[in-house]
Amino acid sequence: MDIEESLRRALRVEEPPPDFTQRVMARVNAQSQARRRARWHLPLALAASGVLAVVALGIVQQQREAQRLQSAQQLAIALEITSSQLNQVQQKLNRGQNMENGI
Fold first, then answer.
1. pTM flag (> 0.90)
2. I want to staple 103 with a disulfide (CB 3.0 to 4.6 A). Which of 7, 56, 59, 98 is the partner?
3. DSSP assignment letter at 4
4. pLDDT attached to residue 38
5. DSSP state of 87
6. Which of 41, 21, 18 lies closest to 29, judged by CA?
7. What are residue 11's phi and psi, to 5 degrees?
8. DSSP string, 39-82
């Protein structure tokens, strides 16, 4: 019978405090406002991610363009050096032929 008495005491009807309704409504309003604010979190996060992706792609493209320009400059220098060396070899060959021909 001890269990039954404990249950009756635990389940007896109690009057709520006078400000109970106000506290519940204040908490409901606060949660509702928090949900309204949280509603903007996902779109803002997605927009920020999009902007970040666009900026990152722009940076990558700039780096690739700079690398392309540097490679083109290096190629131009290499071709100039090669051309100069080929001219020198050609001149030496021409001198050798001129000497053989007695010119």
1. no
2. 98
3. H
4. 67
5. H
6. 21
7. -100, 10
8. TTHHHHHHHHHHHHHHHHHHHHHHHHHHHHHHHHHHHHHHHHHH
Please state the domain extents for the chain: 19-101
Q: Is the dihedral of CA 37, 43, 49, 52 positive or negative?
A: negative
pLDDT tens, position by position, 41-78:
888 899 999 999 999 999 999 999 999 999 999 999 99
AA letter at 62: Q
Eight-state DSSP code of residue 98:
H
More confident residue, 80 or 5: 80
Q: Which two tokens stand for residue 23?
A: 């506290």
Query: How many Cα atoms are found within 13 Å in the side-chain-facing hemisphere of 46?
Result: 5
Q: Give the whole-angstrom CA distance, residue 72 versus residue 66.
A: 10
